[in-house]
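Hi,

Apologies if this is the wrong queue. I'm a grad student, and the batch job for Aminopeptidase N from Rhodobaculum claviforme produced an output file that my downstream script rejects. I'm not sure whether the problem is my script or the file. Here is the sequence I used:
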Amino acid sequence: PQPIRLADYTPPPFLVEGVALTFRLAPRATRVTSRIRFRRNPDAQAQDLRLDGEGLRLISATIDGVPITAQPDATGLTLPGGDLPDAFDWAAEVEIAPEENTALEGLYMSNGMYCTQCEAEGFRKITFYPDRPDVMAPFTVRVESELPVLLSNGNPSAQGDGWAEWDDPWPKPAYLFALVAGDLVAHSDAFATASGRAVALNVWVRPGDEGRCAYAMDSLKRSMRWDEEAYGREYDLDVFNIVAVDDFNMGAMENKGLNVFNSKYVLASSETATDADFDNIERIVAHEYFHNWTGNRITCRDWFQLCLKEGLTVFRDQQFSADMRSAAVKRIEDVLSLRARQFREDQGPLAHPVRPDSYHEINNFYTATVYEKGAEIIRMLRTLVGEDGYDAGVRLYFDRHDGQACTIEDWLAVFAEATGRDLSQFARWYAQAGTPRLRVTEDWDEGTGRFTLTLEQSTPPTPGQPDKAPQVIPVAVGLLGPAGDEIMATRVIEMTDTRHSLTIEGMPARPVPSILRGFSAPVVVEHAVTPERRAFLMAHDTDPFSRWEAGRGLAREILVAMVRDGAAPGPDYLDALAVTLSDERLDPAFRALCLRAPSEDDIAQALVDAGETPDPMAIHTARERFQRAIAAHMDDGLARAFIAMETPGPYSPDARDAGRRALRLAALAYLSRNDGGDRAARLFAGADNMTEQMGALGALLQVGAGQSEVARFHRQWAHDRLVVDKWFAVQVALAAPESAVETARSLTRHPDFDWKNPNRFRSVLGALATNAAGFHAPGGAGYALLADWLIQLDPVNPQTAARLSTAFETWRRYDPARQGAMRAALERIRATPDLSRDLSEMTARMLG
Ligand code: DPP
Ligand code: ZN
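Support response: The file is valid. Your script probably expects a header line. Output copied below for reference.
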C-alpha cells in the first residue's frame, strides 16, 4: 500500500454546513442516521467527493431525497463530483455493532456503557463522512436509549424519556465528535467564566466511583481559571462533561465539551492513587481542557500537523503544572521523560520529524516526538521571541485563526509577524528528525583573562534523512567564579551556524560555564569536563536544572565506568550526594530527583553514545552496586531523611507533601538495601495511602523480598481494577532479571488478567518492556513472550498492539545474539497473516 503524504494534500472539494445525527443505540445493531448539508468548496479544484466509512452496513442513502446508485467499498464511498449539485443534503442510515468493537475506535462498549473515540479516524466507523480535520461543521445529535445518561458534544437542547438532544454550535472536525450513554453518576460543580458565563461541570463515572472524582474536578476548575489568566481563553459552552471509561487506548480525549478519559486519569483517592497518579490527573485534565482552544477552536488542517495542537497543548500543560507545583522540579521531570522516550525514539529506526511527511497509519504518530519534542520547540520559540513576543504571537494566532484548520506555517507566521523575526531556519525543527549534538569546548587565556566558549552542532542521520542542516539552538549559558559565585547571569546564545563562539574578556580568574541552563533546547551536550567540575556545579550552580544535571552527568559517568570495569563510585560523588540529601534549603522533591539513579535504559543510551554495545545484565548489576554503595555510604543521612520527611496529618496530594513523600520513599528504597526491607515491611503494614503502600512494596521487591506483601496487597485490593493494574505492573517491573519473564508469563495466566483491557495488558506486557534486564535476558524469552502477545492482541486492538511494539525499537543497539532474537521476534510479527496496518507499519519501520 502507498503511504499518505503531506505533499499530496489538497483542500476538500465539498465543505459541510451542518450535521444532524440520530443514534438508536443497541449493542449489536445501533442505527445511525445522518443528515449532512454539503456545499462545494470554492477554494478547491473539482474532484469527486469521498465519504469515508468502514465496517458500516449501509441501509439507505439519498442525495436531496434521491437514492444514490454508488456502492461503498471497504473504506468508503465515492460520489462523482461532476454529478453533484453545488449544495445538497446527504441523508443516510447505517447499522453498526458497538459490542463487537474491540479496537476501541469509533462507537464501542465498555462495562455496559456506550462511548466513542474518534481521533484520529474513528468517525468513519460511525457513519459515512469526509473524515478529515479540515472539514469543520456544527453538529446536532439525538441519542435514543433506555440508559439513564445520554451525552454528546455541545449544550443539551432537549430531552425526554429514552432520548436526549445535543447542540454543538462550534464548527468542529469529526474527530472531536463524542457520544456517551450509560448508567452513570456525576460529581458536579459549577464555574463562572471571567465574562460571567455559568458553566455546569460534571465528572461522570460508574456508580460507586463518585467518591473519587474530587481531584479531577478541582484540577478542571484550576485549569479553566489558568487558561483565562495565562492565555486569555474562556470556556465557550454551558456545560463541560468528563467521562471516565475503563477500556481506553490512550490517556484521554478532548472531544468538544465531552472529554472522555481513561479512568486511571480521573479516579483518585488517597487510599487507591499515588502522588504520581494525582499529578497525572491534574496534568491530563488540564491538557484536555486546554485543547478546547488549541486543537478544537483552532484545529489541524491535516494529520501531518498533529504537533500544531499537541506540541502547543503539552507546552501549555507544562506551564500550568509549573505554576501549580515547583517549576524546577517540573522541568527536570519533563526532561527525564523527554530523554527516556523521545531521545530514545530519535536514536532508533522510528525516528521521525515533529511534522512527519508520510505515514501509513496516523495512530502510529501519537509519539513522544510529536508531543514532547513538539512542546520543546514551542518552549524554544518563546525563549527566542521573548515572553512579550510570545504573547503577541499567540494573541494573533487566536484572533486570526479561530474556527480554522491550520498548519505549522500558519503558527510560525503569527510570530514572524508579531515580532518581525525571520523564522524560516527555525522551521527546520519541525522538518528534521534526530537529536542535535552540541559539542562544547573552552579556551582560557590566563594572561589576558579571555575566556572563549565554542559550540558546534551536528545532528546524526535518521531514516530517510542522511544530512542535516544547522538548526537555531537557543543555548542558555551562565558563568560561575571559582568560589561558586555567579559572575555572568544567564544569557541566551542564539546559535544558527554549525559553529558559534562566545568570548568574554577581562576575567580575573578562569570561570566555570554552566551550559544549557533550564534545558533551553532538546539537544545532547557533549562537554568533556572533570568530575570535580561536575561536583562543583552540583554544589553551586544557581540554575536548579543545571545543578541537578551536573549530578546526573556525574552519576552517568560513574555508572558507565562501573559497567566497563567494575569500578566503584568514588567518595567525591557520594559526599556531594550526601550534602544534597541533607541540604534543607532544597525542596524535598528536588532532593528526591537528585537521589534517583539514571535508569538502565539511560545507561544503555550513554554506552551507545560512547560507541559501545550495552549489556543489559551488566548495566543492571552495575546500577544495583551503585545504589548499594550509596546506601552504605549514606545510611545515617537516609535514615534521618526517612524520619524527617514523614507527613503527619491527613493525606494531601499537594506538591509539598508529595515532595516529602518522594524523598522519604527514595530514602526507603536505599535503606532497604541495608536493612533487608525491615522499614519497608513496617511502612507497608501501616500505610494509610497508596503512595506509601506502593513505595514500600516496590522497595521490598527491589531487594528480593515482599512476597507475602504481594499476596496481601491483592487480597486487600482485588475489588479495585485500577489498583489491581498496579499490582500486576509492580511485580513485573521490579522482578529480578532472571525471573521477570516467568513472572510476566504466570501473571498472564492469572484470572484477573483481562488482556482485552488496554490498561491491564500494559500492566503486564508494557511493564515487562520497562524491566530492561529482564526483557533482554539471554535466550530471548522476553522478546518471544511479547511477540506472542502482540500477535494475539493485534486483531482485537491494533492500536495498543502497535504502541507496545516500540519495546523493540532499540534492537540494533545490542550484541549479535540479542539483535538476532529481537529481529526474529519482529519478523515473526511481520509474517503474521492479516496483520493490521498499524503493526505492519511499525514492524516495517523497525526492521528498516
Ligand atoms: N488528542 C489526545 C490527546 O493528546 C490523544 N488522542 O489529548
Ligand atoms: Zn493532546
